[in-house]
C-alpha cells in the first residue's frame, strides 16, 4: 500500500453518542486524499468499539494509565502518513474541506504545523442560538519531525530542541465540538474528579507551574469554589516570576476574571483594570475580560461603567472577527465570550444602559446593531420592544425606522418558522401594552414625555394587528374608524382600539355586520378590564336611547360586562352605571320578550340575569317616585333570583344608606323612636302592625327602623 498522505488519530472510550458522527464526517476527506484512520480504545463497554471497527484502518487497545499524552502517542507511533491529524469523537469536521485538501496536496516542505478553527458548543441546541466560542487549534503536523505529546491532562505538543521552521499555517477549515453540551452531571463530576487528580499530581511535581494552575482554574470554575483559590494563587505566581510567565499572563488574568464573575469575587473589577494595564492589546483582555467587567458593572447598576466596558468589548470583538489581533494568542486557549450569543446579550444591556443615562442617540445607534432574526429568547424580544417604546416616547428620533426593521427581522424564519412565531408572539404581547389607556395615562405623566409609545407602531398598519390598532387609536373620524374596524377581525383587534372607536361614536354593530348575541357579549367582556372607559361607554349608550335590536343587544352586552367587572369604588361612576344598566334593561326586555312574560306572575320564566335586570329597572322607578322601601324590596328580590348581582345591590344599598344618614334630621330621629315604641306594643303578626307600616309617618322613617333587616348596615343578609 502506498504511503497515505494523512494519518488521522483518535482515542476514545464509551462514546456511543457521537463516535459514528465523527467518523462519518471524515469520509469526504478520505475520498479526497489518501488517508488512514488510527484509533485507540481505552476501555469501551458501550458498543463504541464495534462502530470504530467499521471505519478504522487500525484499531488498537490501550489500557488507561491516567495519561492522555501516552494514549495520543500510542497512535502517533504507528502512523505512516506524511501528515498527522488528531480529532476527538465529540468533534466533527465541516464539509468545507477544499482549502485543507489543497494545502495537504502541495509538494512543498516549508511548513510543518497547521491550525484550524474549533467551534465549541456549550449547550444542547446551541447551533440554533449561535451559542458557541471558537479557538485556533494546532491539530495537524508534518509527521516524522520529532513532535511528541506531553501532559497527563490538556496534553500538548512538545517540540524537539532542533525543531525545523515552526511557522504555523492557519487553514480555513472548521471542526465542531459539543462534548460539554451533553455531559450529564454524573459524567461531568467524574470528569472533574479525574482531571483534578491528574492536575494535583502535576502541581506536586511543580507547585508554581502557571500553566497547571490555569488548568486547575478551568477545571474547577463551574463546579466548586476551589477556583477562587487557584485564581489568586496563579496571579501571585505570575507577578512573582514575571520573566518566566509574562507571555501567558493575559490568559491567566482572563481565567481569574472569569472565575471572579462566576464566583462573584470582589476582586473582579480590580483584576480587570490590572489586565488592561498590563495587556491592553491582548484579545483575551479586550473580549473576555471586558465582557466580565461589563457584566459586573451592570450588576452594580453602574451604567457609566457598563457602557464603557461594553464599548471596549465590542471594539475588541470587531478586531477579533476582522483578524486584527495576535493569532498566536489563541493557541493558548479559546475565547469565552466571542460568540453572537454573548454579543446579543451585551448589546441589549448596552442600549438599556444608554437609556438610563439619557444618552438617547447612543442608544439609537447601538440598537441598530441588534438583529432581531438572531434573537432566540422571548425575554430578549420583550426587552428590545420595551426599549424601542421608551426611546420613542422620550425622543424625536426616527424610532419608527428601527421598529419596522425589527418587526421584519423577527419574522424571518431563522433558524425556523417555529422560532419566528415565538419571537412574533413575544413582540405582540409586549407591544400590546402600549395601546392600553392605563399605559398611555402613565407615560403621559413621566418626565421627558414627548409622544405616546403606541405611535411608533403606526408604520406597521397593514402588517400586524398592533399596527392596525395604533392607526385606529390615532384616528377620530367615525367614518374612517368604521372603515378601519370593518377591515379587522374583531377577535384579534386590540380591545383598547375598538373601545376608542366606540367612544368616538362609531355605530356598532357595523352596518351589514352579522353578530350573534353571544359574540357581542364576548366582545363586550373583552372591554371589561378597561374599567372606567367601559362604564363611560355604557352611560353614553344609555343616553342615546333605544335603537335597532342588534344595537340594543350590543348595549346590553356592554352593560352586563360593566356591572360584572366594576369594583364599585367610585360612587359617582357606580351610580351612573347602575342607572344606565337599568335604563338599557328597561329598553331591552320589552323588545326581547312578550308582554305577558314581563309580569310579577310570569317573570320567573326568564333567565336569572334578565330577571335581575327587570327588578333593577322597577327599583329605580320606585326610587325616582320617592318609594325607597319599594326600591330596597325590589333590589332584594332581584338578588334572590340572581346572586351574581350581589356587589351591585350592596353598592346601591350603601349609597341609599349614606344618603339617608345625611337626610336624618333630629326631628326624623325623634319620630323614628316614637314609631318604634308604638310598634313594640303589638305582636309582629298583629294586623295593626301592617296598618301602621302603611302610614305616611312610618314611610318617612322606615329606613331608620328597618335598615338592619333590609341589610343596609354591613351588607346584604343571606
What features would you describe in this structure?
The termini are far apart. The protein has an 8-stranded mixed sheet with strand order 3-2-1-4-7-6-10-5, sandwiched between helices. α3 (48-55) links the parallel β2 and β3 (58-61). Helix content is 56%, strand content 8%. The chain is α/β, with parallel strands linked by helices and 718 residues long. α8 (210-220) packs antiparallel against α9 (226-240) and α26 packs antiparallel against α27 (571-592). The chain folds into 4 domains: 1-182, Spore Coat Polysaccharide Biosynthesis Protein SpsA, Chain A; 185-335, Tetratricopeptide repeat domain (Serine Threonine Protein Phosphatase 5, Tetratricopeptide repeat); 339-474, no CATH class; 660-710. The longest helix has 22 residues, at 571-592. The protein is built from 33 helices and 10 strands.
Keywords summarizing the entry:
alpha/beta, Spore Coat Polysaccharide Biosynthesis Protein SpsA, Chain A, eight-stranded mixed beta sheet, two-stranded antiparallel ribbon, 33 helices, 56% helix, elongated, disordered C terminus
Amino acid at each position: 500500500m502506498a504511503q497515505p498522505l494523512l494519518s488521522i488519530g483518535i482515542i476514545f472510550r464509551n462514546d456511543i453518542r457521537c463516535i459514528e458522527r465523527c467518523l462519518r464526517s471524515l469520509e469526504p476527506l478520505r475520498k479526497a486524499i489518501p488517508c488512514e484512520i488510527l484509533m485507540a480504545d481505552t476501555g469501551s463497554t458501550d458498543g463504541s468499539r464495534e462502530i470504530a471497527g467499521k471505519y478504522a484502518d487500525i484499531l488498537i487497545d490501550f489500557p488507561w494509565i491516567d495519561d492522555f499524552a501516552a494514549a495520543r502517542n500510542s497512535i502517533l507511533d504507528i502512523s505512516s502518513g506524511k501528515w498527522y491529524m488528531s480529532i476527538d469523537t465529540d468533534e466533527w469536521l465541516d464539509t468545507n474541506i477544499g482549502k485543507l485538501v489543497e494545502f495537504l496536496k502541495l509538494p512543498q516542505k516549508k511548513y510543518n504545523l497547521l491550525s484550524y478553527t474549533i467551534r465549541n458548543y456549550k449547550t444542547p441546541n446551541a447551533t440554533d442560538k449561535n451559542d458557541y466560542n471558537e479557538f485556533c487549534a494546532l491539530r495537524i503536523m508534518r509527521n516524522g519531525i520529532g513532535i511528541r505529546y506531553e501532559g497527563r491532562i490538556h496534553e500538548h505538543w512538545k517540540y524537539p530542541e532542533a525543531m525545523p521552521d515552526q511557522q504555523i499555517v492557519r487553514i480555513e477549515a472548521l471542526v465542531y465540538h459539543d462534548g460539554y453540551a451533553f455531559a450529564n452531571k454524573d459524567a461531568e463530576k467524574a470528569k472533574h474528579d479525574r482531571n483534578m487528580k491528574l492536575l494535583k499530581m502535576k502541581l506536586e511535581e511543580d507547585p508554581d507551574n502557571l500553566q497547571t494552575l490555569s488548568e486547575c482554574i478551568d477545571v474547577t470554575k463551574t463546579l466548586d469554589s476551589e477556583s477562587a483559590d487557584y485564581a489568586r494563587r496563579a496571579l501571585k505566581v505570575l507577578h512573582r516570576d514575571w520573566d518566566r510567565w509574562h507571555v501567558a499572563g493575559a490568559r491567566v488574568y482572563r481565567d481569574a476574571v472569569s472565575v471572579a464573575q462566576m464566583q462573584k469575587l470582589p476582586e473582579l473589577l480590580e483584576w480587570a483594570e490590572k489586565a488592561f494595564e498590563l495587556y491592553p492589546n491582548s484579545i483575551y483582555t479586550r473580549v473576555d475580560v471586558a465582557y466580565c467587567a461589563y457584566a459586573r458593572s451592570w450588576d452594580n447598576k453602574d451604567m457609566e461603567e457598563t457602557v464603557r466596558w461594553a464599548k471596549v468589548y465590542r471594539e475588541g470583538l470587531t478586531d477579533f472577527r476582522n483578524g486584527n489581533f495576535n493569532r498566536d494568542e489563541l493557541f493558548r486557549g479559546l475565547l469565552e465570550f466571542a460568540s453572537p450569543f454573548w454579543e446579543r446579550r451585551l448589546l441589549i444591556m448596552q442600549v438599556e444602559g444608554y437609556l438610563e443615562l439619557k444618552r438617547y442617540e447612543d442608544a439609537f445607534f447601538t440598537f441598530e446593531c441588534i438583529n432581531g432574526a438572531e434573537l432566540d429568547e422571548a425575554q430578549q424580544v420583550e426587552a428590545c420592544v420595551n426599549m424601542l417604546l421608551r426611546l420613542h416616547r422620550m425622543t424625536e428620533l426616527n424610532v419608527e425606522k428601527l421598529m419596522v426593521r425589527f418587526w421584519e427581522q423577527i419574522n424571518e424564519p431563522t433558524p425556523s418558522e417555529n422560532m419566528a412565531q415565538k419571537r412574533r408572539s413575544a413582540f405582540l404581547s409586549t407591544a400590546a401594552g402600549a395601546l392600553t389607556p392605563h399605559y398611555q395615562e402613565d407615560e403621559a405623566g413621566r418626565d421627558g414625555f414627548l409622544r405616546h409609545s403606541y405611535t411608533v407602531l403606526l408604520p406597521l398598519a397593514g402588517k400586524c394587528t398592533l399596527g392596525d390598532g395604533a392607526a385606529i387609536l390615532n384616528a377620530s373620524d367615525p367614518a374612517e374608524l368604521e372603515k378601519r374596524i370593518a377591515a379587522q377581525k374583531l377577535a384579534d383587534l386590540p380591545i383598547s382600539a375598538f373601545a376608542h372607536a366606540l367612544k368616538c361614536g362609531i355605530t356598532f354593530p357595523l352596518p351589514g355586520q352579522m353578530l350573534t348575541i353571544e359574540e357581542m357579549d364576548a366582545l363586550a367582556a373583552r372591554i371589561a378590564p378597561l374599567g372606567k372607559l367601559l362604564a363611560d361607554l355604557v352611560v353614553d349608550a344609555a343616553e342615546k336611547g333605544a335603537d335597532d335590536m342588534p344595537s340594543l343587544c350590543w348595549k346590553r352586552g356592554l352593560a352586563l360586562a360593566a356591572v360584572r367587572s366594576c369594583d364599585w369604588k367610585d360612587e359617582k361612576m357606580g351610580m351612573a352605571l347602575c342607572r344606565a344598566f337599568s335604563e338599557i334593561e328597561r329598553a331591552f326586555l320589552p323588545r326581547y320578550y312578550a308582554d305577558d312574560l314581563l309580569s310579577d306572575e310570569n317573570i320567573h320564566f326568564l333567565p336569572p340575569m334578565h330577571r335581575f335586570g327587570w327588578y333593577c329597572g322597577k327599583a329605580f322607578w320606585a326610587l325616582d317616585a320617592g318609594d325607597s322601601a319599594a326600591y330596597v324590596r325590589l333590589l332584594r328580590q332581584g338578588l334572590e333570583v340572581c346572586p351574581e348581582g350581589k356587589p351591585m345591590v350592596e353598592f346601591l344599598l350603601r349609597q341609599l344608606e349614606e344618603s339617608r344618614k345625611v337626610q336624618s334630621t333630629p326631628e326624623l330621629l325623634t319620630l323614628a323612636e316614637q314609631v318604634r315604641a308604638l310598634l313594640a306594643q303589638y305582636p309582629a303578626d298583629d294586623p295593626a302592625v301592617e296598618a301602621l307600616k302603611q302610614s305616611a309617618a312610618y314611610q318617612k322613617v322606615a329606613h331608620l327602623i328597618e335598615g338592619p333587616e333590609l341589610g343596609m348596615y354591613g351588607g346584604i343578609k343571606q
